[in-house]
Design goal:
Oligomer: heterodimer
Low-confidence stretches of chain B: none
Number of helices of chain B: 10
Strand order of the largest sheet of chain A: 6-7-8-3-9
Number of strands of chain B: 0
Strand content of chain A: 15-25%
Shape of chain B: globular
Low-confidence stretches of chain A: 1-8, 206-210
Shape of chain A: globular
Helix content of chain B: over 70%
Number of helices of chain A: 9
Structural class of chain B: mainly alpha
Number of strands of chain A: 9
Helix content of chain A: 25-40%
Distance between the termini of chain A: 36 Å
Radius of gyration of chain B: 21 Å
Radius of gyration of chain A: 17 Å
Largest interface: A-B, 29 and 19 residues
Structural class of chain A: alpha/beta
Mean pLDDT of chain B: 91
Order of helices and strands of chain A: HEEEHEEHEHHHEHHEHE
Chain lengths: 235, 262
């Protein structure tokens, strides 16, 4: 766990995020429109470092869109998004994404075997220095009840639950200080859900105090809501 | 001994052969008879125009005029690719034009210069037919490659975005798509090279033999043009994609859907 958190809680300039007291994620009065439709209006949110927050609400309220705004996949028409005090802009997004791990809803894994898919991010220039994190895959597979034989399987033959767990493993193995999750338990069975919730509870503020991951999740799962430091309802 | 001339009357009579495929289309109910007739008419008019124009061009043999004709050919190919791939004209016109110029010019100039050792690199008799053959194949390869690239990206957008989220820069994220697009674009040429001469005599060789040259010389020309076509198509497809990504992705690395016609 400690090895995985080599880059945890370090800001863009290598500063200690927890000591600085700045929020890890700060969304200030953003409005998002797709064509003529306003999906999010004048919304603000702040998630402190080591904090875990859940966003919930009816379908179509822009929950997933909020996560995409943080990653720069959707650009608000007004307002700002900051990660570790740095505004999400074209000049900064390429670095800021290296502070965030993302598990989308119903992840699509592309092509190749599971092993190839897990190894691929460590071929990118941004991740080459943390290639040793790949050694944690067996431990993570065991934790989330994935058989090691799965590594040789083509990603396209995986079940929805297997894809979701593999995506979660990939996100955690990258060892970044911020974790964005979009309905992470939607395709999981009860035991896998329990394992994930226990793990997230340990690595966020919970057991390790403030020295944990910052987690922002879209979810309606009561188990995840129960461990969150704050719940934001987009009702 | 040059090729035997064909009289207009005999050519007109030869046109009657198209009644066979048209008859088959009518019988099977293939709904492209109208398009076919228009295409035959266009082919006739375009080739007549080109034939008359090339007579003048070959007679004058001005390097500037020859270069201008090549530029016109490349511009027409550029527009065909943009239309064929459903792209927005403004964003893709210049980068595709540049890719076609480089992809055509490099093998063409090597062909006319170091290979044929022609003193005038812009000699009409060589530069226009050879340039046209290279360009025609670049056009086909570009349509296949660019369509494959952008359609794959649109189809697997979620997987692409996840790649960006994992820390990939644009060039790292598009690499698998570029690889697949190149494979799709180059496979027809690779397949042609593998089977050339076994099924039919290829066009360049046929033309050179009909012009009275001995078959051994014709084979050398054919080999050279295949190398030129393969080189040109590879350069064009890779350059076209790399040059167009500047205008088809947002500064955040997301594919800009405004690049495509709806």
């Amino acid at each position: 766990m400690e090895q995985l958190r080599d880059t945890a809680n370090k800001g863009p300039a290598g500063q200690d995020l927890l000591a600085s007291g700045m929020p890890c994620i700060e969304i200030e009065r953003i409005t998002v429109r797709f064509a003529e439709k306003t999906v999010i209006e004048d919304f603000s949110l702040s998630v402190g470092c080591g904090e875990s927050a859940i966003i919930m609400g009816p379908s179509g309220r822009g929950k997933s869109t909020l996560l995409r705004c943080i990653l720069g996949f959707v650009v608000p028409v007004s307002g700002s998004v900051k990660i570790c005090g740095e505004t999400v802009r074209p000049e900064t997004i390429w670095y800021l994404r290296t502070l965030v791990s993302y598990v989308p809803q119903e992840p699509e894994l592309g092509n190749g075997t599971v092993q190839q898919w897990l190894e691929r991010p460590f071929g990118y220039k941004a991740n080459k220095e943390i290639k040793d994190n790949l050694e944690k895959i067996p431990e993570m597979f065991n934790r989330f009840l994935l058989p090691m034989e799965l590594l040789e399987k083509d990603v396209n033959v995986l079940s929805g639950g297997e894809k979701q767990r593999v995506a979660i493993v990939s996100a955690l193995v990258l060892g970044r200080p911020i974790l964005l999750l979009d309905e992470p338990t939607s395709a999981l069975d009860d035991l896998s859900k329990k394992r994930l919730i226990e793990y997230l509870s340990r690595v966020s503020g919970g057991e390790t105090g403030n020295n944990g991951l910052t987690i922002l999740a879209v979810s309606h799962d009561p188990g995840l809501i129960a461990i969150a430091d704050k719940v934001i309802n987009l009702d | 001994m040059g090729a035997v001339d064909i009289s207009l009357i005999r050519l007109g009579f030869y046109y009657s052969l198209v009644l066979i495929p048209l008859g088959a289309m009518l019988w099977l109910g293939v709904p492209i008879i109208g398009k076919t007739l228009i295409a035959i008419l266009r082919m006739t008019l375009q080739l007549v125009f080109v034939g008359l124009y090339l007579q003048v061009v070959f007679k004058i043999n001005s390097p500037w005029l020859n270069a201008l004709w090549l530029v016109v050919m490349i511009a027409v190919a550029d527009l065909s690719i943009i239309r064929g791939c459903g792209l927005k004209l403004g964003r893709f016109l210049a980068p595709l034009f540049a890719a076609l110029v480089v992809g055509t010019a490099i093998p063409l100039l090597f062909f006319v210069g170091p290979l044929l050792k022609r003193p005038d690199l812009m000699e009409a008799q060589y530069v226009i037919p050879i340039g046209g053959m290279i360009l025609g194949n670049c056009l086909r390869a570009d349509i296949i490659g660019i369509k494959n690239f952008y359609e794959s990206l649109q189809r697997t957008e979620k997987a692409f975005l996840l790649t960006l989220a994992q820390g990939a820069r644009i060039k790292e994220a598009i690499l698998p798509y570029l690889r697949d697009a190149c494979e799709a674009a180059l496979m027809p040429t690779v397949a042609t090279m593998a089977t050339i001469g076994l099924v039919a005599l290829p066009g360049m060789m046929t033309g050179v033999i009909l012009g009275g040259t001995n078959p051994v010389t014709a084979i050398k020309y054919q080999i050279a043009i295949m190398v030129a076509i393969f080189t040109g198509t590879a350069i064009t497809v890779v350059l076209a994609i790399l040059l167009t990504i500047k205008t088809s992705f947002t500064p955040y690395g997301v594919l800009d859907k405004g690049s495509f016609k709806k």
